[in-house]
Specification:
Layout (H helix, E strand, L loop, with lengths): L7 E5 L18 E5 L15 E7 L9 E2 L10 E2 L12 E12 L3 E4 L9 E7 L6
Antiparallel strand pairs: 1-2, 1-8, 2-7, 3-6, 3-8, 4-5, 6-7
Length: about 130
């Protein structure tokens, strides 16, 4: 059995899944990562300019979906979800690259464009590989 405990939650102006862009570069707004204060020490070394990988649980996903039409384009053929970035998948884990714009005490990070909707659980944060320490 796998048990995951969120470390925080995304706060965003995106409140409905249908309003969220497919990727950050498609016009996603800034967002705030509210991290549980129990994990404050884990943020040591993260600051403005840090590039992070945010791992989320896409809580509104349809877990039974196995195939989609990429880009929601009805002209495209059905494609297995493992060959797409669809949020609908058996284990709806989201992976998002963001840049930290500011730290907001006690344990929140304002970040660049993020396509996750408000209330999305955060599972983990990792420094982006090209910023690895």
């Amino acid at each position: 059995m796998i048990v995951l405990e969120p470390i925080g939650v995304v706060r965003s102006s995106l409140v409905r899944r249908k309003d969220a862009p497919r990727s950050a570069r498609d016009g996603a707004p800034e967002a705030t990562l509210e991290i549980d204060e129990r994990f404050l020490a884990a943020l040591e070394g993260v600051g403005p300019g840090s590039e992070l990988i945010v791992v989320t649980w896409l809580h509104d996903a349809v877990r039974e979906t196995l195939q989609v039409r990429p880009g929601r384009d009805p002209a495209r053929p059905l494609t297995g979800v493992f060959a797409t970035r669809s949020p609908d998948r058996p284990n709806p884990i989201g992976i998002h690259r963001v840049t930290v714009a500011a730290l907001e005490p006690p344990a929140s990070l304002r970040v660049s464009a993020l396509e996750a909707i408000d209330g999305t659980p955060i599972l983990d944060l990792k420094i982006a590989l090209d910023n690895e320490r």
